[in-house]
Amino acid sequence: MSSPTRRPGRPRDATIDEAIVAAVFDLIEEVGLAPVTIDAIAERAGVSKATIYRRWATKDDLVVDAVAGLIGRSLELPASGDIRAVLVAVLRQMESFMSMSVAGSIFPWLVGEVAAGTEIGRHYAAAVIIPRRADLGTLIRQAIERGELRADLDVETALDLIIGPVIVRKLMGRWRQPEEDWVPKLVDGLLAGWAP
Amino acid sequence: MSSPTRRPGRPRDATIDEAIVAAVFDLIEEVGLAPVTIDAIAERAGVSKATIYRRWATKDDLVVDAVAGLIGRSLELPASGDIRAVLVAVLRQMESFMSMSVAGSIFPWLVGEVAAGTEIGRHYAAAVIIPRRADLGTLIRQAIERGELRADLDVETALDLIIGPVIVRKLMGRWRQPEEDWVPKLVDGLLAGWAP
Predict the structure, then answer these.
(1) Chain B residues within 8 A of A114 when measuring between CB atoms
(2) Residue ranges of domains in chain A, CATH in brackets
(3) Cβ atoms of residues B43 and B56 within 8 Å
(4) ipTM greater than 0.85, yes or no?
(5) Looking at beta carbons, which residues of chain B come within 8 Å of A129?
(6) pLDDT in tens, A79-97
(7) Are B190 and A193 in contact (CB under 8 A)?
(8) What global pTM score does this model have?
(9) What is the largest CA-CA distance in chain A?
(10) pLDDT exceeds 60 at position A120
(11) Cβ contacts of residue A54 below 8 Å, gap of 6+?
């Protein structure tokens, strides 16, 4: 193993990044997204503003990267399993993110940016939506190849049907009255039409 | 028939309302939503600012009412027909609204307001989303009663599945590459799982 003293900056950088991201989420939970400033983030994380600006050009960039990191961790796609298990896991992970208190502030902002096709919206789509959608598309195609889903299933339409209800429910604020077991009900409804 | 002179104010009011709403859409098409001002709307419609403020407290209120009127006209639910015809018609009407150039400016703003649960977002939900969703739910329940859809279909989940893909496609900007016939494909895919 190489000496831990070879590149001493790396471990410290990661710790600083983590402290900054943790400060972002703490502050968003406390006051919402709009009032959070780089000043407040720097103070909460115990770093200088220059340290933050060396890593991110704007607060928006920082928040998008923080969300991308959070979703990257919390929405891991299962590597195996039949397609029912995969879809239930993916939707439960999306539900779990959507139910987090930070999502309450971040989702309306991000959904507006994505819809408007702003730079932030495109950054978020490129960092989170497009790769996750591609991964899920691959899992659907593999299920078609295994004969679990019908061969003529349109994968893009299937992706819209899996993701759409989560977005609609979040938009309409219906997460506030959580319904037990809506995820397996939704998945079973979809799979009934997707059987070979 | 009553004399047309009995309530002379009414027809003029409607004409003024129409001129104001037409001016709103003209200006949004020309410059986008954000830069449009009550001043510019008044000038374009040929009315005074006071005339507008007598009807609407803010520009946002005016825009929401204008959109509600537009969607109320353009997204009429078919009164009869089998459920396939109803769903194809509803989705084609939504697609048609989403493809209008004004929707390009209005949709990102409204979706953010609805997601954030602001006063404007709740106004739009109450004026447009909730009644339209209720109407479509009634049509689905009638199709269940006629035996066209399976008796244990969850109507709220079905509504999310019908509406979700349109929202996702618009959010992701995929309206720019219109795919022919995605609507009947989507409806046939849904109905395959919803048959009795």
Answers:
(1) 171-172
(2) 14-55 (1.10.10.60), 67-194 (1.10.357.10)
(3) no
(4) no
(5) 172
(6) 667 899 999 988 988 888 8
(7) yes
(8) 0.81
(9) 59
(10) yes
(11) none
